[in-house]
Known about the structure:
By secondary structure, this protein is mostly helical. It contains 23 helices and three strands. The chain has two domains: 2-245 and 358-471, no CATH class; 247-322, no CATH class. The longest helix is centred in the C-terminal third of the chain and has 41 residues, at 446-486. The relative contact order is 0.12. Mean pLDDT is 88; it is low at 397-412.
Amino acid sequence: MVEGAYALLVFILATGILLTPPAIGMANNGDFERIMYQPEVGLAFNTTDPHLRYFNWVNRYFAVVGGGDARYPSSLALLLQPAIAVSQWLYGRPLFDLSVLAVFYTALLAVAAFFTLGALRRVLPPWATVFAALAGIVVYCDVAYLAYCRSLYSEAVSFVSFMFLLAFILVLLTRPVPRIWGLVAFGAAAVAFGTAKLQMAPLALVLGVFAVRLAHLRRDRLWRVASVLCAVVVVGASAACYTLTPRAFAYTNLYHSVFDGILVNPATRAQDLRALHLDPKLAVLAGTTYFDRHPIDVRGREFRERFYRKIGWTQIAGFYLTHPSRFIEAMQQSHRDALAMRPPYLGNYERSSGMPAKTLTHRFSVWSDTKRDWFPSSVWVLGGYWLVYGAVAVRGLRVHGFKSVDGLDSGPRLAEFALWVGTLAVIQFPIPYLAEGRNELIKHLFTYDLLWDTTLLISGTWAIAKIESAIRLRKRQRVIVSETTAG
């Protein structure tokens, strides 16, 4: 009943934050079309006015027009299909209401919360459990995360699937004998997370390794074969999505990585282009995005020969490896944008609300506001945090703070779980800037923020558990002393 009440609270709170009038969400920056035009989705805007379609306000209603011809593989398309079907049933016509998808997301978040709290109650002392439950609501129900749930951005799928990953990993690690259904659920969540968008591909490899580690939780052959098969499916699905993504997206990312990333310093642009073995005359494109107007035709054959034939991710990585100071500058910019959390150019309200264009809501934004205003903005402080976090996790999170769980001696423990989350965060941190430079960096750091915030929750829960354990130990010692004295 405790888990059920907690899940209900999460559902009511999250749904209320999104749908209490005036309802909130995230305006479209142009990414909606990637999903709308999928053959299995087939949505269209109800307006042709670009002022209404992009950046300024949330679009709530979409026409259902049948399959399109775009190819952008994402797990979001699979979730959209039942939401579209329910919406059409509710309205009795081919109309999709974005609020239906929002309720789908909040219901899934509630289910993930149910399993997560159940697992935490098995291993945490009471007050640490209370802290984790309440802090989880403050962090994960923050509008910086929830607003994406009323949009067609794949960040929302990343968010919800990651919540299920946390839930089912904890379920597997905290049961004396983990069950096959938990492994299957973990695999499904990992596939959804790894195929949500392109930048998840490196993380899918880490999830695959973790799935293999799960094979040590049980000694029977069926479990071990299932764990290895789970790893193959997770990595294979992510690799397939990456392979099937149109080359045009890779071209766009490469353009931003160079012209809105590496070439941000005007004093070194010509030198940087030579280091990349590119024509220094291309410096005229520095600071632009692929979608701007350019003095050079960036979509023509000549530019393809001058730029795309000579540049790739190997050259990008090589540049930062040979220019470490530039890498540190890039990571400093990334850290500042990660603290911001909320893109200021994407409005949260519908036009019917009467709010001005690009207005951001402050509804349930305590966590995101605190990070923006109070967290240290130095990347060196962040690096120190990761070193301390890793050292503590290696030493063992559950030594004093968590109750021991029988039957897990040969498998990954909660310390390894903490390391897994930290590893995902450290890997994800440089990817947005290296892949797309400053272009929409705040939005592209969404997954990193999610992982980083989870490590902060783990750290806080560990500290509370340690304190609670120390207090209990001291009380027991006093009882023993008093009994000995009385004897």
